[in-house]
Amino acid sequence: MKALFALTLILAPLGPACGASPDWKAGTARMVITPQEPMWMAGYGARTNIATGKLQDLFAKALVLEDPVGHRLVLVTTDLVGMRAALTDPVADELGRKHGLAREQILFTSSHTHCGPLLTDKYHTYPATGLAPVEEEKLRRYTERLRGQLVQVVGEALSAMAPARLAWTNGKAGFAVNRREPTPRGIINGTNLLGPVDHDVPGLRVESVEGRLLAVAFGYACHNTTLSFYQWCGDYAGFAQEYLEAAHPGATVLFFMGCGGDANPLPRGTVELCQKYGRQLADAVETVLAGRLHPISGSARLAFARVDLPLDKLPTRDELEAQAKGKPSYTQRRAVGLLQVLAERGTFATTYPYPIQVWHLGSGPTWIALGGEAVVDYSHRLKRELGPTTWVASYANDVMAYIPSSRVLQEGGYEATITSAELAGSAWGPQTEELIIGKVHELVARVRSDQTKSPPRKLRIIVLGGHPDDPETGCGGLIALLAQAGHEVTVGYTTCFRGGRKIGNEPEAVVRRREATAACEILGAKPHFFDYAHEKLTADEATLETVSAWLKQVQPDIVLTHWPLDTHPNHHATSSLVWQSYLRDGNWNLYFFEVMTDQQTKGFRPELYLDIESVREIKRKACFRHASQKPDDFWRVHEAMHRRRGEECGVKFAEAYFLVEAKKGCPLLPVSFLSRRKD
Question: How far apart are CA 410 and CA 266, in angstroms?
């Protein structure tokens, strides 16, 4: 037995000296999920009967965190052997509908206790004796009730949100032992005192602004399999949580499993040993070294993805039929299920969508959550490659099979070969580890770069047109994309009316202002009206002074206006006013756009193009807000322009622009928006 190391963790109050401020919010909830009737248990394929009683209640718990800018993170822990995507994905969808949570915001974990209930699963492979219809119905009822309970417990935690302080640290515990024992006959499930283990205990402390302990989340990488009897129990993780909650009334204690696919608590087999390991882990959590907590500040960054892991060798129908005729066993039951799949689908999937989730907790740790029963090699490698502030959980979001490393696949043994019906009984392909690690690095780079880099500068951009509808038709796609990217766009209109003309019973200026304001709202821009009459706009000194003074006041980074060669006098005058302001003291970059090319804009040969297909409908809606201007007519002209410019740059629909010069020290339009001419 390895020595027990003290866990320098999380239960001492943070206090002012820690520097943590209550910028975060937190809420917790817990719910008993112990089956209400005797039913089959999960985890061991050799079971011969249903549960006979309860040593300890099983729980689903939720911890909801909200960072200073409003990002929410939901941790759901369960005293279950594992939950598959067929359960967690629908729960996540329902939480999205009810509470607006995205998939990356919700992390489902299981403690992997083998003294919890079997969940319904169309292709379940145990117990070896099969299930009677009445027992199948019990599983269905329990799983459906569990689905509702998971949604409910998160809702209750959201309702309990209050200001909180967060801190984290890493500690140690020492009762996990590697179980992959080398023998002359190969690797067996036994005892390997020299094998790799992960003794880290990552810990998160959550306290109220008054210093009261609200929650503790901690993990450990060891199979939760001290017991194999027929009573409901959370095993050592369940006892550790029970002891900590008894010592800290009102606090919610949550456990998540690390990469313990090839580690066991040894020795094992008795309730006394189970309670001993639970007490050791709880005592370790209670052991605190003053001043070693790290307060968490800043905002969280989240990512979730699935990577298609290839399967190695799919079974043939003949192989499955031979296995299905064998004696009742794990393999026999799996073969029966796979023959059902083959009958329904005609083939097996050759890959499996494996989930990976990453949370970067502001100034705190980067928390990686892997699906399945990952072996310890994943934890060691990721911590080595990503640094000491890395936490690695497993048994998260979808527990479908063991996840062996390349080493384990080469060595063989239980963790390399035992898979589920979802995987068609196939082992994972040899590239499994590299695909998983590669995707983790990609997600970690995304969340860490978002966290550490300064946010892109928010640009101030002006689009100045001769009439309401000119900026929308010429630059509507660009305006929409810039606004979506967080930039500040102001649309200026130099003229709004002709003399005393009316549209219907209203003055033309009132109607066109209303239309332009509605169009800007669709595009995400702010309108500005100069209110010159159509007939009175000239590039004289007084008008130039007005336009220049406004530009100085706004201090734009970029200005866009009409191409100077334009047959419409208001377009030409507007362009001239901007051009003279630019020459006089314009500390910004100037771009020209086109409207009604060949009819009004003349001689325009653009050098920059914008693919607008993703925002074409937004642009169309904005243009059609100008109902007084017969938008059907001018939209047809501009649609032809979109296609023409698209052909020139190799896309379907495009807008076109011309940059006067790239002024030193002045920002350009974001390059990701623009492309060059094909030729």
Answer: 25
